[in-house]
Specification:
Elements lengths: L1 E5 L3 H9 L4 E3 L2 H7 L3 H9 L5 E6 L4 H14 L4 E5 L2 H12 L4 E6 L2 H10 L3 E4 L2 H5 L4 H15 L4 E4 L5 H10 L3 E4 L1 H8 L2 H17 L2
Parallel strand pairs: 1-2, 1-8, 2-3, 3-4, 4-5, 5-6, 6-7, 7-8
Helix pairs in contact: 8-9
Length: 213
């Protein structure tokens, strides 16, 4: 399983990319929190050369969506267009997939939505784990089911586990077969940390210094 850093904080993005994270994704709530302007943010992150960069298209009409897509792809034609799951979003996905434009579908909460988005032509789906848990639905089981369908049907769509609330979610998403996980920087830090690793490094460093004497 590979990783997207899920933030609009440029410092966190820079640090995550330096650590080898594959992609960058965010959402309007994050842009608002960080006080960044959408297109300026895309240009700045694009300059950091992530392997994958997603960009939202959230407009009330199909024409406005397509205009937004053109503006995004003018920054970099490899940016993945991120679309909220909806009837209008599916129409956009269908159009863009026929043009060979990469698409990610977010706000996926069940297998039906996942398969409908796949049929429309999406390249990535973002099933939400934590938000499903909050309404009493087993988010891990949902993503396990989605991964199973994709594997059994030999679909090429990639699964991005989203709404990761803790390291348990992260581990279970990997075991479920998710291709990527979209994580906050704080969760990524927790995933890297293990006390035995820290203790072992301290021991090795101490012994190394003794060897150099």
């Amino acid at each position: 399983m590979q990783y997207f850093i899920d933030t609009a904080n440029i410092q966190e993005i820079q640090e995550a990319l330096a650590l080898g994270v594959s992609g960058v994704t965010a959402n309007p709530s994050m842009y608002l929190k960080e006080g960044v302007k959408f297109y300026d943010f895309l240009k700045e992150v694009n300059a950091l050369s992530p392997k994958i960069l997603t960009a939202e298209v959230i407009e009330p009409t199909l024409k406005e969506m397509l205009d937004s897509v053109d503006k995004i792809l003018a920054i970099n034609p490899t940016i993945v267009i991120k679309v909220n799951f909806s009837p209008l979003g599916l129409k956009l996905i269908n159009i863009l997939s026929k043009r060979g434009i990469k698409i990610a579908t977010t706000l996926i909460f069940n297998t039906n939505q996942a398969t409908i988005a796949i049929d429309a032509g999406t390249d990535y789906i973002f099933p939400f784990i934590g938000r499903n848990d909050e309404i009493g639905v087993n988010g891990i089981q949902t993503i396990t089911d989605i991964c199973s369908v994709i594997k059994n049907k030999n679909y090429h769509t990639k699964v991005v586990a989203a709404s990761i609330k803790n390291v348990h979610h992260l581990e279970q998403a990997a075991l479920a077969g998710a291709d990527y996980a979209a994580v906050s920087y704080s969760i990524f830090e927790k995933a890297m940390s293990h006390q035995l690793t820290i203790d072992g490094a301290e021991t090795f460093e101490h012994h190394w210094l003794q060897l150099l004497k």
